[in-house]
Amino acid sequence: MEKLEECKHYDKDNRYMAATDLCAEIMKTNVQLEEGMEKRICSAFISHLDDKSLDVQGNAVKCIQKIAQRIREKNLVMIVEKMAERVVEGEKETRDIYSLAIRSIISEINEDYAKPMINAVHPRLMKGLGSTDEVREECLDILAEIFKRFGSLILKNQTSVNKDELMRVIPEQLQREKLSLRKKATNCLGSFSIVLTQKQLQLLCQLLIDRIKKSKTKADSFTLLQCFGQMARTVGSKVAQYLSDIFPLLCHSAQTLSKDQSIDIDNEIAEACLSTFESLVRKCPRDIVPYIDKILELTISLMAYDPNYTYDENDDANMNDDEDDGAGWGSDFEDDNAGNEDDDDTSWKVRRSAIKTIEAIIASRPELLRLFYDRYAKAIVQRFKERDDNVKCNVLEAFQQLLKSTSAASGAQLSSSVELELRHQPSLERTKSSTDALGNLVPLIIDGLIKQLKSKNLKVRISVMHTLAQLAQALNSNLEPYFDRMLPEFEKSMNESQGYDLILDTLNILRRLFRGSGSYHSYQTNFRRIEVIIQQALNHEYSKVVSEGLRVAGQFVYVLKSAQGTIDPSYQSVVPTLYNGIREKLVKTDIDQEVKQCSIIAIANFLTICHNQLNASQIQEIISVYNDRLQNDLTRDATLKAITKIAQNQGGQLINLSNLGGLMPRLFDLLHKAQRTIHLNTLEALIAIVSRYGNQFSAQAGNIMKEIAPFINDEDLQAASLALKLASITLQIDSNSNEVQTLVGRACNLAKSPLISGSSLNDLLAFFGSAGQKSAVKDATIGQLLEYVTIKTQSAASVVAQIAVNGANKNSFQQEFLAKIQGQGNDNLIRGALCLGEFGKLVDLSGVPQLIDKVSALFKNSNEDVKTAASICLGNISIGNPDFFLQRVFNLVDQSNAQEKYLFLNTIREIIIHNSKCLQLYLQKLMPLLIEHSKSEDEQIRNVVAESIGRLFIIYSRYIGNDLEQSFKSSNPYEKATIVKSFKYAASKETDSIDLENSIEYLLKAIQDFDINVRRNALESLNAIVHNQPQVVRSDIEKLHKMVVVETQIRPELITEVDLGPFKHKVDEGIPIRKAAYSLFDTMVEKIPDRSDCNHITEIAIKGLDDTAEECMIICLHLLGRLISWAPAIVASNMDLLVESFEKQFQKNAKLSGQAQGSDKAQNIMRALMRVVEQLQRTSEVEGVSKFNDFFKAYVLENAANKALFEKIAATASQAIFEHF
């Protein structure tokens, strides 16, 4: 009550504060206000809108905007009604304040208020459109806000506004004489197009086209052309349907410029046309494709349009004198338009719009990267001499976008792929990669950029440094020859007093240059000057500069190292200065968090190179500081990585670290934390320490074993693998510890897991090999391992063989295995056969009498698992001595009957996997056997055949090509599917690319086969080829793209309904093929993004979010994440569709997450969704996109569970800081 009275106080400051306090009180409580009190508060705020003080008026607008969500609907509608009346009929002086207040409320309220709000305001606004020009302007602004905020609702409810009347009234305003009214009408028309149906939009476009054709003045044409630009920005995808009518009009209008003089209205018209092109390129990149060449031709020409000025070679010469006139770097005498010869010349608008359109094309069409370098890159570089500083910055930003795309392409390893693709072609026919093309332009680029660094305009210099930073990212190793020219400018930038951008960019460039490979001669020659720059950074007042300086210091020492891995004696004089500078930051505890982390990593880099220049106490101090930093949650990850780096010291001498033992209690504590990342980092650190400094830990070996034992299980095989590595190392230090048997027991349990394979299996075998050498495996444990051996857990047999080979009783093991295969009981036969095979793989058993006969006798057993074990055994023992066994094995094949031949497939597969080179003499016998069994109805047999043929193709592609070609043409679907699948295994990096390329035609035909298994196998094989040898499919990528798109569709004919009694269940047999198709797109974007149609793939990925299969949705989300990294502008252009799909999935899976059935599936989808949302949220191209911002606020920030998940994912992503090193 008191504050309400204060709102009427005579003092404006009191009124201002009273309104502010009243608003704060309302926002503080969640309790609904009493209705009478609410009316009084609303009246008080409305009265402030008429206040004499502008500050009070502005504050009232803010307060009404804030409380709009907290007051009753009818009171809010009443407020807006009154304000709308005052806009239309009120005083001129307060009209704009009321208009602003209405727009503020509309922007804040939720969609529940939309209908009554529109019903209350719309009639008054329509009345206002028939009033004076000033009233019309405010009404158009309010209508534009309504259409933008509630466009989707109005589109669904066609009667909420009188569209027919608006279609008549708004275009009328475009013909008014007042320019500001025309501009408001143009903006409103752009927003109005959001709520129009396709038919209404067509009528509007036709109306504008007819008017442009009939327009009598250029001013009228300009206004109408601006309308197309606004419509393209708001509903580009809808307008794209009329491009065939609009494009010629825009193109003609943009080319009416005079070559001899700059005419303002012509420049305005050209700017409007080019801006429309830019919007169309960004909003509908696929639809604009047929017109891209013409747009590029036009924009490249117009970006140099400057009829009032003649450029020559000495345009930048005046910049060289900046230092002499005292107005160079750090000067206060700067102007954003410095260098403009004619302030009345508006041709800069044309050049700016042209270069912005070029930038939009580069961002949205990354597949045209090579074309840009071939035709347009040089022209853009030559425009660095642009005389208008603002346009010059636009030119530099466009070139930065080109460099970003080049860096992304290099990240996809395009250069190496291109080289592989072209290695068989004559040199004159080779096409350069985008990185090579950029490298050829470096002299011209550096020359242009260094000239611009002498500009008096700070904004230009910052833009130049941004460009150099991007260039260093794309071509770090190619810039070393130009370092002497760049260094003086870097030194100047370090003294910049107007902001920190130049300093940060300088340090960023240096760090990227030092990370490059190749010659370091220029850096080493100038090491003293670089040292000064680093010292300036380390002593700077701004923490981000200090952090970047630490990164540079940590990288700089690698530039100065000798061939022995330590610092070269010629540069040892920098050691004390750098050490003291880094140490000062390292030991401080009350400094910025990022500085702490960077100092931890920097001193680790320094220590690995310069340790021989430090004394023992200095090194001990560093380790002591690390010990303290391990206790802090925020510095622990950096410290673990630093310790690992120091201990490993790859390629360098062993550093004298005498106090590492003190770290152990801290590291053991970290293993007890409930965070997987910490576990992995800690285990890696322990491996590095114990493997290099094992002599310090003989007393602690038992404790280490005790701490790592819990990680040896199949719940996390990555952690288990690291723990096993560490166990093998500690076993060498102390094999008598009581904890050894604990480790052996845990490893024994892991051996029976069907999940263990690959590197984790190799680490398990290495551990048991070490344990066998130390006689640490007891007989009871070996017996237990033997019990675990089955067809499904062959890893246990590999473990037993490792123990046998490395132990003292090798012969007794051999005899035991032989006894088992001649004993009784199928389980014993299987164990004996598998163990004997693994043993024979490691030991030559050719001296064992009648071994093949004993093994092949098991083929007569009635049990299929025994037969399979015998065939695997036969293959493995052949690997031990192929010269002795192979001929005998193939004799058995010849002697076997048709029913027995399939048993030899496992034998052959084992030989192929481990030593396929020994099979050349037997290919003529082998291929018919494999081809025959490719027709088997048993899928397991076909899988073995596919793998065998694929692995043979890697080495013998020239020998077996004809056989495969015949099978491709087979009418047997099983045979064709098996041969197609074999290329999944054949697509190795070692396979001859020409032979692989000859098979592409058949694989593309297989995608269109009638059999679903053939199609799926073809997609999976092509996926493997694109992943390992992408150059093979580059020329067929368009054809492949079209075929894969078809396979992403849900096909009703592949969905069957199964009657399960109480309910019916749908089975979709198309899921595997859709999954394969989406996976192939994912690999294409990863490996050959410059050839992939990323615009279309983005649409497909968004559509795939509605797929009924969880696995397809997850792949599509992963694909979107990859597209965001490669071409964020393309994803941003599809934001409306993407947000709509996200909202649907968030709503659906949020409900399922709380249910017992389907909860895991929903949670998986939510995590994958949130990863993409997090990636979008930190993408610059999405900043300011209201559709995404509204979604993010409603579904993430205002939902506690989603917000917590987002923060967890964001925290994980933020750990990328360490990649700077």
Give the beta-strand count. 2
Tell me the β content.
under 5%
Strand count, sense and barrel status of the largest sheet are:
2 strands, antiparallel
- Under CATH, the topology of the domain at 920-1043 can be stated as Leucine-rich Repeat Variant
CATH class call of the domain at 920-1043? Mainly Alpha
Reading side by side through the largest sheet, how are the strands ordered?
1-2
CATH architecture of the domain at 920-1043: Alpha Horseshoe
Distance linking N and C termini: 61 Å
- The number of helices is 59
Low-pLDDT segments? 316-341, 413-431, 1216-1221
Structural class: mainly alpha
Mean pLDDT: 85
Protein described:
InterPro entries: ARM-like, ARM-type_fold, CAND1/CAND2, TATA-bd_TIP120. This is Cullin-associated nedd8-dissociated protein 1-like. Residues 314-346 are annotated as: Disordered. Keywords: Repeat, Ubl conjugation pathway. With 1221 residues, the protein is mainly α. Among the domains are: 810-917; 920-1043, Leucine-rich Repeat Variant, CATH 1.25.10. Helices cover 69% and strands 1% of the residues.
